[in-house]
């Protein structure tokens, strides 16, 4: 890639960046969607492409920012990063914070069936690094932040590297509006829908023909949380998903299954508790185990959502609503205490 020095009128600057063919295709994206995303991130700059040349025109400061953004995106494209609209917006956010996107975003965790799995935001990268550096990691955040998916990728990576002998995936079988007893079939049939997201992730990261063999031999085990009682899990990568729906007793039971040579990742969203009492084991454990060596709490936010961009805005809206409700309840409790004190 070659770039010229800025040129143009005193009021405006213009610079050209030469991009090789393959990187240019990745930079533009389907129907030039990524190019349009770049323009939205730096709206004061006009972006034009002719052949292998990207030309940026606008105010000098804006052009410099856009040039840095395009340069970083080209670097990532050459490194095999699958660019998408989220990657562009995240890269701009990293640049605004003074970072370097090609360094701030994660290295490849897995390459499976033509797809590369990696952290796509700084928060996700910090989460993955916590998994590398600690024995027990709690991934806490809203839907779509990649908590379970990245943990699964790290588990498969550890198995492929022979760092562990097996992967154990678990979830509490808690209803979100329905009751297990009303579902048809045997107990296994009733529980299976709760474990289906874990099966789906496995099938994305491993050859679908291999997954049944690994399940049959016990190298990969998917089981409800209740099946963990009484076991000691050695040389295993253990993932507990939807942990906000554990009771404090279940969380303690699960954590004490940890054996030698094992790693645990517990994921959940403390704003989506489905257990009737609302006494979430995940909420409580953040206070009990905070500060203990070799245990890490990685908190992800709406800026780490890797689903549709609207999901992040939905998460922010609910967070703001919850904050208002908590403030309202706090005021009502204060008023009630004041009235009680006057009696």
Structure in words:
With 343 residues, the protein is an alpha/beta fold. The protein is 45% helix and 17% strand. It is built from twelve helices and twelve strands. The protein has helices at 21-28, 33-41, 60-78, 85-96, 101-104, 122-133, 147-160, 187-205, 210-217, 248-255, 281-288, 309-342; strands spanning 2-3, 13-18, 46-50, 53-58, 108-112, 115-118, 136-140, 166-171, 220-224, 236-240, 263-268, 295-299. The strands form three sheets. A six-stranded parallel sheet has the order 9-8-10-11-7-12. α2 (33-41) packs parallel to α4 (85-96). The model is unreliable at 175-180 (pLDDT under 50).
Protein traits:
343 residues, alpha/beta, six-stranded parallel β-sheet, four-stranded antiparallel β-sheet, 45% helix
Describe the structure concisely for a colleague.
The protein has 343 residues and is α/β, with parallel strands linked by helices. It has twelve helices and twelve strands.
Low-pLDDT windows of residues: 175-180
Q: Could you say which structural class the secondary elements and strand pairing correspond to?
A: alpha/beta
Distance between the termini: 78 Å
How many H/I helical runs?
A: 12
Give a quick account of the main beta sheet: strands, pairing sense, barrel closure.
6 strands, parallel
Mean of pLDDT: 83
Helix content, binned percent: 40-55%
Measured by DSSP, the beta-strand proportion falls in 15-25%
- Compressed to H and E, one letter per element, the order equals EEHHEEHHHEEHEHEHHEEHEHEH
Radius of gyration: 24 Å
Taken from the alpha-carbon principal axes, the silhouette is flat
Number of strands: 12
Strand order of the largest sheet: 9-8-10-11-7-12
